[in-house]
Amino acid sequence: MPTIIFPAPIFGPVHSRRLGVSLGINLMPPDGKVCTFDCIYCECGFNAQRRPTQRRPTRQAVADALEAQLKKMAAEGPRPDVLTFAGNGEPTAHPDFAGIIDDTLSLRDRYCPQAKVSVLSNATLAHRPEVRAALLRVDNNILKLDTVDAEYIRRVNRPAGTYDVAQVVETLRSYGGQAIVQTMFMKGRDAEGRDVDNTGDRYVLPWLDAVRRIAPREVMIYTIDRETPDHDLRKASPEELDRIAALLRAAGIETSVSY
Length: 259
What we know:
single chain; alpha/beta; 8-stranded mixed sheet
């Protein structure tokens, strides 16, 4: 079982495959996971096995820790390429998410104006007005859409509550091209032996139709890079990812690939 639980509220910097030198901002407790998804590929493990005993960091604690780290990086290096909201769960679930975004943008402008602010989100709360407004203020709102197949989502992403993928697609479409779609492609089997390969046309073509409707600024496709709680999952091959990327580019969609 994976043991990656990130410190809070600040971790890193780490080198991101997609984003460069990334200073992580974790709005979840430092000793466990709180997420609206329970993905079988999550590097933080399953929700039930990572129940926290501590609370989420407060807005002030996030701002204080971020300012201290940005001062240090400005003086000693390396300067961050990006400030990334990620960590032990869904960042937009923090009750002060919008205010924390305001603080982060202000601190970024003061100490490292060249850095981008990114949010890695599963998009489950992207319809909330305050979350939407905050996500539209950051440089990179990276929003998950692994498939449009409801049964696959139920088995693989395992939403904690009601999740209507058609509604999520319409929410992302409402961002008016100011969203980045992020999709995990993988192969193998889940803990019950069911095939989870979403690289074939059965899953890719309906997903591609949804992406066209969303008309995002960019699509990021990637595959497994770390240990997963379901141990029979496998990486999609470079050839499979390249095929999917070619379909996106043929549709005129900016695409990046992490192998």
